[in-house]
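Hi P.,

Sorry for the delay on this. The queue was packed all week, but I finally got your sequence through. Input first:
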Amino acid sequence: MQHHSLRRNPWAWVPSLYFAEGLPYVIVITLSVVMYKQLGLGNAEVAYYTGWFYLPWLIKPLWSPFVDLLKTKRWWIVAMQLLMGVGMAGIAFTLPIEGWLNWTLAIFWLLAFSSATHDVAADGFYMMALDEGNQSFFVGIRSTFYRLATLAGQGGMLIVVDWLIRRYGNEREAWIMAFGVVALLFVLVGIYHLLMLPRPHTDKPRDFAARDLLKEFAHTFITFFQKEGAVPALLFMLLFRFPEAQLGKMSIPFLMDPVAEGGLGLTLEQIGVIQGTLGPIGLTLGGILGGICISRGGLKRWLWPMVWAISLPDIVYVYLSYAQTASLPVISVCLFIEQFGYGFGFTAYMLFLIYYARGAHETAHYAIATAFMAAGMMLPGMMAGALQEWMGYRGFFIWVMACCAVTFAVSAFLKIEDGFGKK
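Then the structure:
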């Protein structure tokens, strides 16, 4: 039996594992915004409260070593999926009670923590359970299923919630039912992976002494900040997405708010179709093109075109806030352009994290770099709602365009070797 489970076909678990990695992230980061907005919270409250949900991804490097040391990666994957199922059920149970806001915020935070832990375990397991050839072959498959989870969360779930609202006439009940279904899905996924994940012989707890662990931990952190060009690199990690971090928090509220309040007044179903299909398609195509360009010309050559690509398309929101068009094709094209530019430009950012993390402690240094990435999204995102309420949508989107100067400034000081990223 042991031998059989070692040879399990990766098609039986890689797609489902990465779908299960993508779905909770999109539920915690994006759907929570829609839900709180629909249940009556203002933009400032929504942005501030949901901004805190980035924190577990921000502090992930602090506990990721323990996922390596305690239990097996396989154990962590199944345990976190079952825990996320319980968490989704918890949201469904607490939405109807008094004090629902505090309860759901706490449970969303638990979901974020479980999801971040699941990321660490799943990525580590992927490398243990597959040889190098299969790792390369399935890297596109895993990102595709992660994207499909985004489509299911941002698109499918919003369309279902909208249908439930129209069917039952109650927004809160619609969200309760939606979270109930997702809870059941996660419990089933956890049971499926308990049965279907292989058992690689390298996936076992490590022996360790607490003193050695702390010493190694400290050394890993110190060497991260001692790398050549650390200051411009850290500023780049934190501030490259400064405009996008603010825009991302306010894009869905802008689509939802009535025209009289400066928004576009779209239904959840319309937002689900645009944000859940055309947006991710644009993002994916931009990312694929970005990867092809860098593999042919290198990161240094393509950095500035990508800086322009991630910044300039934000202007579509300035246009939409002034035009306030009701035309779905026009809105769809605008959001497709913005997401395509973002996908293309974001390739440079992700590749720079890999570039900076190279050398000893590569995995740990990459985890620290992604923590800086999360901080760069969390802090500007938390203040975005208050800024929007103060400036109105038009003023806010003009402010976002002005913030693109920060992206240009932090990109100007980077030192990148010729040919890095080139095949």
